Amino acid sequence: MTADITFTAAMVQMRTGLLPEPSLEQGIRLIRQAASQGADYVLTPEVSNMMQANRKALFEHLSKEEDDRSLKAYRALASELKIYLHIGSLALRASPERAVNRSFLIGPDGIVIASYDKIHMFDIDLPDGESYRESANYQPGETAVIADLPWGRIGLTICYDLRFPALYRALAESGASFLAVPSAFTRKTGEAHWHTLLRARAIENGCFVFAAAQAGMHENKRETYGHSLIVAPWGEILAEGDSEPGVFMAQIDPAKVDTARRAVPSLQHGRRFSVADPKAGPEHLHLVRGSA
I need a labelling partner for 85 at 20 to 30 A (CA). Which of 14, 23, 143, 251 fits? Predict the structure, then answer.
């Protein structure tokens, strides 16, 4: 680990396959590469263990958290490499009929520091005909999660959560200096919105944003956007991936969080206000939390 207050963050960009075993081999290889290049904190993408569109095949290969081989292997790897290893998410069995999309932050001792279940399900019909119904297989989480790193607090989120800024504001107001957004954005939505949304979450909350992504054409014929990003609190892109698996790194100075928040102290200026519906009359008011 680095001796001073700065640290090196690495985004592991993957192309997860249909089965957990080859995906685990890919993940371990890239994490080892990141650690060998000096990474202190390593983030992998959403669904690092498998990307299965077929429900029957998905549930054939799902394991409960306590039995999952990928999680056990990643815990051992974090302990061996003495890094903070953040597995963006694993598809795990919650019940005979439902899965969870769960993120794990693992410490250098191999112990799970925190876990988070994706709250917002990706149920969408895209203009090009692509359709996704994450809620058909997965049950949503209900609780936002924040955890401590040696350099500050980190808020855990996953992919489609990115489109719901209130979650990130709540994490920042709870003390997060870093926001993790492991993802598997489609190529279509990634090309349109990925950079804009991630930079917005960084700027509006004065946080570093870590976004490891899936990339390329997967075995299940889904194409993901890639372009893993590390974004500074002022909105600068510090590291960016391409469309191939790899490791993308940047040096992180947590002091930049305070600098950005002093320059634009919007976290201190949030107010509650009412929204009136003119058609319903003044008695129909909705109380909303807003920010300057």
Answer: 143
The CATH number that applies at residue 58 is 3.60.110.10
Give the separation between CA 167 and CA 72, rounded to whole angstroms: 29
Residue 191 falls in the annotated catalytic set: no
Query: Which residue among 64, 65, 80, 159 is the active-site one?
Result: 159
Within a domain: residue 241?
A: yes
Residue-number span of the structural domain to which 150 is assigned: 7-254
Measured CA to CA, the distance from residue 208 to residue 257 in angstroms comes to: 7
- Residue at 282: amino acid letter: P
- Position 259 in a domain: no
Residue of 72, 118, 256, 279 marked catalytic: 118
The sign of the dihedral angle between the CA atoms of 258, 262, 265, 268 is positive
Calculate mean pLDDT across residues 187-205: 97
Q: Report the C-alpha dihedral over residues 64, 69, 74, 79, rounded to 10 degrees.
A: 100
Q: Is the separation of the CB atoms in 229 and 195 below 8 Å?
A: yes
Q: How many domains does the chain have?
A: 1
Closest CA to 212 of 14, 70, 65, 21: 14
Residue 189 within any structural domain of the chain: yes
Alpha carbon 237 to chain centroid, angstroms: 17
Confidence of residue 25 (pLDDT cuts 50, 70, 90): very high
* Helix residue ranges per DSSP H, 91-217: 165-173, 187-189, 195-205
Residue 260 lies in a domain: no
Per-residue model confidence as pLDDT tens digits over 93-137: 999 999 999 999 999 999 999 999 999 998 777 677 666 788 889
Of 21, 46, 219, 221, catalytic:
46
72 is catalytic: no
pLDDT one-digit tens code per residue, 239-263: 999 999 999 999 999 999 999 999 9
